[in-house]
Design a protein that fits this description.
9-stranded mixed sheet, 12 strands, globular
Length: 431
C-alpha cells in the first residue's frame, strides 16, 4: 500500500531525500539541510511553495530560483518521481509514514523550538500523536554497567506509572533501558533513531507496542540509512525538543554524542531543564555537565515525587522567555499564522489556550517589544528580529498600538515605543 502524501511533502522528498531502496545507495545528490533551508526561504519570499515545483508551472518557478541552486540539479531531483513511488510503496508495506514540515501533522514542538532547523522530513512508525505529548528525555552512554541499566530501567517504569512519555534515542545501553522499562510498565515511548528505522520497526520486541500505539519511532533520516556518527549527533536536539524535562544518566567527559548533545542543550538551545544523575556511581562527565549548568537529579522514588519535578520545571520556558526575544515565537506558536514551508495556516489548536498561557504570551510580547524598539523599526524588521511570520507580527503591532504601548509613524512606517511596557493590559488578538 502506498502512503498518501501531500504535494508539498512530495516535492520536499524529491528535493531532500536520498530515496534508498533496499540496499541501493543514495541517489542524485539531494539538497543538504542548509541548501533546502535557503530554497524554502526564497520560495516564501516569492510567495511560492515546494508543491509549485511539481506542477505545470515548474519551469517558471525554477527560473525564479536561478542562482540559488543549480537548475539542472533541481530538475534531476524533481525527475525522480518513479523512484519516489517505489520508496513510498516500500515504506507503506512496512507501516512507515512520512510527513514534512509543510504538513499540519508535523510535530509542533520541533517546528516551534527548532524553527527553520527542524528536519524538512520526518519518517516514523507508530502513533505520531505521541510526539506531541512531551515527557522525560533520558539519554546516556551505550556502554554502561549493569547497575546503571537497572537504575535506568526502573526510571522508565516510574515515568510510565506517572503517565509520562519517555523520549530517548533507541541506542543500546541507557536509551534502550529507559525505553524498555517504560514499555514493560505499559507506558508510552518515543524513540528518535539515527539509522535503520525500517529495521527497528520490524523488530519482534517492538512490534506489539507499535501496534498498540504505545511506541513511536521517528527519524529525520531515510528508513534504510545506515549508522552515521554525524546523524547520531544531530538527532540529539530532536530528543530534547520533544521533551519537557531531560536527564543524562551517564556521559563521557568532553567526548561522545551524549556529552555533545547535552552541552548543545545547555549552552545553545535550552529547550528544557537538564538534570544529571545524582545517585550511585560517580561520573566525570556528569560532573562536567553540572559545572556547565546542569542540575542534580532529585532522584524521585514515587509518582508524586516525579510529578513534583515536572511541576517545578514547568516554569523553565516562562522564566527563560523573560530574557529571550526568540522565546516569544515559541510561546505564540499555537497562534502563528503561517507555516515555515507552506503558504497555508497552521492547524487550529485542539483546545484554546488557558488564561495563564495567554497572560504569559502577553508578558513575553510586551517584554520583547520593549527591548527591541530602542530605535524605530518597520514591521518587517521586527518580524525578522523575532523570527516570527510577518502576519503574526502585524497582529501584535496592532494590539500594542491600540493599547497605547507603541506609536505607528504613518509616513515612515516605523513603530516606536511610546510608554514603559507593563505586564498588565488587554490581551492580543491571536488568530
Amino acid at each position: 500500500m502506498t502512503t498518501p502524501i501531500s504535494p508539498n511533502t512530495q516535492a520536499i522528498l524529491l528535493l531532500t531525500a536520498p530515496l534508498i531502496i533496499g540496499k541501493a545507495s543514495a541517489s542524485s545528490d539531494p539538497l543538504t539541510p542548509g541548501e533546502y533551508k535557503a530554497l524554502a526561504r526564497h520560495l516564501r519570499s516569492i510567495h511560492r511553495q515546494p508543491a509549485d515545483l511539481v506542477t505545470a508551472d515548474m519551469d517558471s518557478v525554477l527560473r525564479d530560483c536561478t542562482g540559488l541552486v543549480d537548475s539542472a540539479r533541481l530538475q534531476r531531483l524533481l525527475g525522480r518521481g518513479f523512484l519516489l513511488s517505489q520508496a513510498l510503496e516500500r515504506w507503506g508495506a512496512r507501516a512507515i509514514w512520512v510527513i514534512s514540515r509543510a504538513d499540519p501533522g508535523y510535530p509542533r514542538r520541533l517546528k516551534t523550538r527548532l524553527r527553520e532547523d527542524a528536519p524538512a522530513v520526518l519518517y516514523g512508525c507508530g502513533d505520531p500523536h505521541n510526539l506531541e505529548q512531551g515527557g522525560l528525555a533520558v539519554v546516556g552512554s551505550r556502554k554502561v554497567t549493569d547497575t546503571l541499566i537497572d537504575y535506568t530501567t526502573a526510571l522508565g517504569r516510574l515515568a510510565a506509572e506517572a503517565g509520562r512519555t519517555v523520549v530517548s534515542g533507541g541506542a543500546r545501553g541507557v536509551d534502550q533501558a529507559a525505553m524498555g522499562g517504560a514499555l514493560s510498565a505499559g507506558g508510552r515511548v518515543c524513540g528518535v533513531v539515527a539509522d535503520s528505522l525500517e529495521q527497528h520497526s520490524m523488530t519482534r520486541a517492538q512490534r506489539d507496542p507499535l501496534l498498540e500505539g504505545r511506541l513511536t519511532l521517528v527519524s529525520p533520516y531515510d528508513p534504510s540509512a545506515s549508522f552515521n556518527v554525524g546523524h547520531a549527533m544531530q538527532r540529539n536536539k530532536l530528543i530534547y525538543a520533544l521533551a519537557d524535562v531531560a536527564l543524562v544518566v551517564n556521559a563521557d567527559l568532553g567526548k561522545g554524542g551524549t556529552w555533545a548533545g547535552a552541552v548543545e542543550q545547555l549552552e545553545k538551545h535550552r529547550f528544557v531543564p537538564l538534570f544529571v544523575r545524582s545517585a550511585g556511581e560517580s561520573s566525570a562527565g556528569l560532573d562536567g555537565l553540572q559545572a556547565k549548568g546542569a542540575s542534580p537529579w532529585p532522584a524521585p522514588l514515587d509518582v508524586a515525587a516525579l510529578e513534583q519535578v515536572f511541576r517545578e520545571s514547568s516554569g523553565y520556558t516562562a522564566s527563560r522567555g523573560q530574557d529571550s526575544i526568540r522565546a516569544v515565537a515559541e510561546a505564540a506558536a499555537p497562534y502563528a499564522t503561517q507555516d515555515s514551508d507552506a503558504m497555508e495556516p497552521y492547524a487550529v489548536p485542539a483546545e484554546p489556550a488557558s488564561q495563564g498561557a495567554r497572560e504569559l504570551l502577553q508578558q513575553g510580547v510586551r517584554a520583547a517589544f520593549s527591548r527591541l524598539l530602542r530605535e524605530p523599526l518597520q514591521a518587517a524588521e521586527i518580524a525578522a528580529a523575532l523570527e516570527v511570520s510577518l502576519p503574526q507580527t502585524q497582529v501584535w503591532l496592532t494590539w500594542l498600538v491600540d493599547e497605547g504601548v507603541l506609536h505607528h509613524e504613518r509616513t515612515s512606517a516605523h513603530y516606536v515605543l511610546r510608554t514603559p511596557v507593563s505586564v498588565a493590559g488587554s490581551s492580543p488578538e491571536t488568530r
